[in-house]
Amino acid sequence: MKLLEDRIREEGTVKPGDVLKVDAFLNHQCDVALFDAMGEEWARLFEGTQIDKILTIEASGIGIACMAARHFGNVPVVFAKKAQSINLDGDQYSTSIYSFTKQKEFPVIVAKKFLNEGEHVLIIDDFLANGNALNGLLKICETAGVVVEGFGIAVEKGFQGGGDALRNRGYRVESLANVRTMDAETGSIEFN
Q1: What is the model's pTM?
Q2: What gap in Å lies between CA 82 and CA 160, rounded to an integer?
Q3: How far is Cα of residue 126 from the mean position of the Cα atoms in its chain?
Q4: Per the omega criterion (within 30 degrees of 0), is the bond before 144 cis?
Q5: Architecture of domain 2-180
Q6: Residue pLDDT, tens place only, 135-149
Q7: What residue ranges do the domains of the chain occupy?
Q8: Residues 136, 97: contact at Cβ < 8 Å?
Q9: 130 is in an annotated binding site
């Protein structure tokens, strides 16, 4: 998606340690018009695919998932929580994921009443690097017995292999910007 790639080139910052900072428009300050265009593109890419719900993980995936849901007939958006709270009651699906950006492990939790066996789910997230978060969501989906129709990713760091691993397992991964290389010293970013 050229619109997203252009924004990354213009406003993204490459940091040491393979970190791409896009907080000006994607995961801190939110550009709602951009999110809407991203949702429209995912709807085009997954046209003809049954989607009953969109699943994401808090917090950065929520905004893009909600905007995308509008383009899939306003399907519900479910987000996995990263911590237990008094608001979570009843039976739950849970697993642990390792966060690349936070450099620590988190529990992820979804109330069982929000994922029903046989539902067709699209998983949406802002970044795909090594695939840890998405593999955690996949474990929850497998336990729930839902059908994962694919992944809608805003930015895939293709050189880190998480997307290729999911594709090799037979999953459909639609990334709107797929970074081939990036260099913290020069600030350069190349896309696939």
Answers
A1: 0.94
A2: 23
A3: 4
A4: no
A5: 3-Layer(aba) Sandwich (3.40)
A6: 999 999 999 999 999
A7: 2-180
A8: yes
A9: yes
The set of residues, in sequence order, having a beta carbon less than 8 Å from that of 59 and lying 6+ positions away, is none
Residue 34 marked in a binding site: no
Q: Give kind and range of the element (H or E) at residue 157.
A: strand 147-157
Using alpha carbons, select from 146, 144, 122, 145 the residue that is nearest to residue 134.
122
Note whether 191 and 182 are within 8 A (CB): no
Tell whether residue 129 is among the known ligand binding residues: yes
184 is in an annotated binding site: no
Amino acid at 132: N
Coil, helix or strand at residue 27 = coil
65 labelled binding-site residue: no
Task: Find the helix or strand (DSSP H, E) in which 156 lies.
Answer: strand 147-157
Q: Tell me: the pLDDT tens digits for 75-116?
A: 999 999 987 665 666 689 999 988 766 778 888 999 999 999
> Is 113 assigned a ligand-binding role in the annotation?
no
